[in-house]
């Protein structure tokens, strides 16, 4: 029997190498082929690499283009809204002749922004500056926001209204001087209040006075937005409008409870001289706590037989007779009174000569402003 293969641990190798016909021809020793051996895998990979290089040209003849500052593969950020199929750069290779292969090469777009989807372009068109955005937001308020804005505007109006009625005219002048927009805010709120009235006394006076003789001079004291002048001037009447803030067209700035810039004297007795006004109108304008001084100024600027028209909120009168008595003490005679309206009471007085008064008598008379209560609007 042949000797066992493993007499000791390890392989047993014969003393002389096996002869091979191929080794004799080449004179080289060749190991047996083992496909799983590492060396065989390396040789196989080298052979495949040489075949690939031969098909594309020698490796040392391949010259790649120099790298640019940007990466070879350009992919726009998906956050910019570019689709996944955005163009990419594929590095061209040269064949053996030296010509670049352009097959399957996609050229990048010169203007990547042109490839943006429509949704991105639409997003760009919606960009606005802060001012336009603020204006747009102000015009597109929800129903709830409009309701809240209306309440805030109403609260602002009530605060201004209460301040004007409960302080003297000098305080009102200071407020309007510090914040001229307050005048506009007050009258904007006032116009909203007028919408709930059964009638507006200003409209009643317009219908009544537009039939006055041509050239009649009317002084509108506390005119607001000068609605009387705007309506009556086209009818040939001369309307002089006075209030705390001028508008550059109709309204003349004046504190009607201090001094009205019109001629007219106020002597101790008699009727005085230099008067040019035929009629004085006070429509809801006896506001300050020193409002009796406005009546005294009205007497000074009126002609001897001039008329004084007053319209006031009915709820302000605690005693109508006391009000009439005060006006009469300044130098007027009651001609008519209308209490039919549910909201307003109207009076018409005629100027008459008066007796002289001492300064102490005038101070006492002018301090009776509490005869009229402040006009307060209810919170809605």
UniProtKB/TrEMBL annotation:
<keyword id="KW-0539">Nucleus</keyword>
<keyword id="KW-0698">rRNA processing</keyword>
<dbReference type="InterPro" id="IPR029063">
    <property type="entry name" value="SAM-dependent_MTases_sf"/>
</dbReference>
<feature type="region of interest" description="Disordered">
    <location>
        <begin position="1"/>
        <end position="44"/>
    </location>
</feature>
<dbReference type="InterPro" id="IPR042036">
    <property type="entry name" value="RRP8_N"/>
</dbReference>
<keyword id="KW-0489">Methyltransferase</keyword>
<comment type="function">
    <text>S-adenosyl-L-methionine-dependent methyltransferase that specifically methylates the N(1) position of adenine in helix 25.1 in 25S rRNA. Required both for ribosomal 40S and 60S subunits biogenesis. Required for efficient pre-rRNA cleavage at site A2.</text>
</comment>
<protein>
    <recommendedName>
        <fullName>Ribosomal RNA-processing protein 8</fullName>
        <ecNumber>2.1.1.-</ecNumber>
    </recommendedName>
</protein>
<feature type="compositionally biased region" description="Basic and acidic residues">
    <location>
        <begin position="32"/>
        <end position="43"/>
    </location>
</feature>
<dbReference type="Pfam" id="PF05148">
    <property type="entry name" value="Methyltransf_8"/>
</dbReference>
<feature type="compositionally biased region" description="Basic and acidic residues">
    <location>
        <begin position="96"/>
        <end position="124"/>
    </location>
</feature>
<feature type="compositionally biased region" description="Basic residues">
    <location>
        <begin position="64"/>
        <end position="73"/>
    </location>
</feature>
<dbReference type="GO" id="GO:0042273">
    <property type="term" value="P:ribosomal large subunit biogenesis"/>
</dbReference>
<keyword id="KW-0808">Transferase</keyword>
<feature type="compositionally biased region" description="Polar residues">
    <location>
        <begin position="85"/>
        <end position="94"/>
    </location>
</feature>
<dbReference type="GO" id="GO:0005730">
    <property type="term" value="C:nucleolus"/>
</dbReference>
<feature type="region of interest" description="Disordered">
    <location>
        <begin position="56"/>
        <end position="137"/>
    </location>
</feature>
<comment type="similarity">
    <text>Belongs to the methyltransferase superfamily. RRP8 family.</text>
</comment>
<dbReference type="GO" id="GO:0016433">
    <property type="term" value="F:rRNA (adenine) methyltransferase activity"/>
</dbReference>
<keyword id="KW-0949">S-adenosyl-L-methionine</keyword>
<dbReference type="InterPro" id="IPR007823">
    <property type="entry name" value="RRP8"/>
</dbReference>
